[in-house]
Design brief:
The structure holds two protein chains of two kinds.
Chain A: H1 14-35, H2 39-59, H3 63-88, H4 103-121, H5 141-147, H6 152-173, H7 178-189
Helix pairs in contact in A: 1-2, 2-3
Chain B: H1 8-28, H2 32-56, H3 63-93
The chains are: A mainly alpha, B mainly alpha.
């Protein structure tokens, strides 16, 4: 049985319904990340937000990017963040005071920023074509041609940057404590 | 014809909304890891806008995805170094709250 063109009873198309669902989940999850009190739940909601954004990428016809998002963000960065949360949360850390004293001005400025974005970006005049959700006919070949053509240097620099970041991360995380350095020197003196 | 999902503006507005939420989290949260998570939200918001431009402008086909790939790689590097710095500070100061990192305050 073929599906009808629009959602039954409401009359909005499937693409619109999917966009509203994914966008709503992404925005609600992001609000939960910045407003929630429990930091472990913040980390788990971040995974939900990143997954919804991967769905948005699929709607834009960039399935390869959705795959990269799931692998890199959900698979690697989120796990890294959750591990860091587990390593740095002590019971003495206050669970009540989550926000800085400048939280209210920050909220006002962010709301103003959102308003400016909504007016300027949503105002139209982008001279864009209408996209019907079908992925480009050549598949991900366009992305590969761009990545290994005009952006080849950036691609190589990104690989060097990742290597440097990994080495720097290992070095920074294995630095001895400030008190330990003095203690070791004193032991050598004896 | 879809009214929302077939146009560029809703994607850009979603991107702007996510960016604003991330900027609020970065400015207002006390926990350094929460601030890092807010930065990740902001980077993802920018990625949505870049991919939307790539999908809706035929001259940019493929380039948006390539650009977003590079942004993801840089974000991974940023998260690695940022979390390593937070853990290194935590081992000295025993707190993840940024307003207690006041060693350099006069």
């Amino acid at each position: 049985m073929p599906l009808p063109d629009t959602l039954p009873l409401i009359g909005i198309t499937w693409a619109d319904a999917l966009f509203m669902l994914l966008g709503g989940v992404a925005v609600a999850g992001a609000l939960g990340v910045v407003l929630g009190r429990d930091i472990i739940r913040n980390g788990l909601l971040l995974i939900l937000t990143l997954g919804a954004i991967a769905g948005i990428y699929v709607m834009l016809g960039a399935a390869i990017l959705a795959g990269a998002q799931v692998l890199v963000y959900i698979g690697a960065i989120s796990v890294l963040i959750l591990f860091a949360i587990m390593l740095t949360q002590s019971k003495a850390a206050p669970a009540k005071l989550n926000f800085q004293t400048q939280a209210v001005p920050a909220a006002l400025i962010s709301a103003l920023l959102a308003l400016i974005f909504a007016v300027t970006l949503g105002g139209g005049g982008w001279n864009a074509t209408v996209f019907d959700g079908t992925p480009p006919p050549e598949g991900t070949r366009g992305a590969a041609d761009a990545l290994f053509g005009p952006y080849l240097l950036a691609f190589e620099v990104a690989s060097v940057l990742l290597l440097a970041a990994v080495i720097g991360g290992i070095y920074l995380a294995s630095l001895p404590r400030a008190g330990q350095i003095g203690a070791e020197e004193e032991e050598e003196r004896r | 014809m879809s009214l929302i999902a077939g146009h560029l503006e809703p994607y850009l507005v979603l991107s702007g909304l996510l960016f604003s939420i991330g900027s609020f989290g970065f400015l207002a949260r006390r926990n350094a890891i929460s601030m890092l998570m807010s930065v990740e939200i902001m980077l993802n918001a920018v990625n949505i806008a870049v991919v939307a431009f790539g999908a809706f402008a035929p001259a940019l086909a493929g380039q948006g995805v390539a650009f977003a790939m590079l942004i993801i790689a840089v974000a991974a590097a940023e998260a690695t170094v940022g979390l390593a710095i937070i853990i290194a500070i935590y081992r000295n100061r025993k707190t993840p709250l940024v307003d207690e990192y006041d060693t350099m305050r006069q």
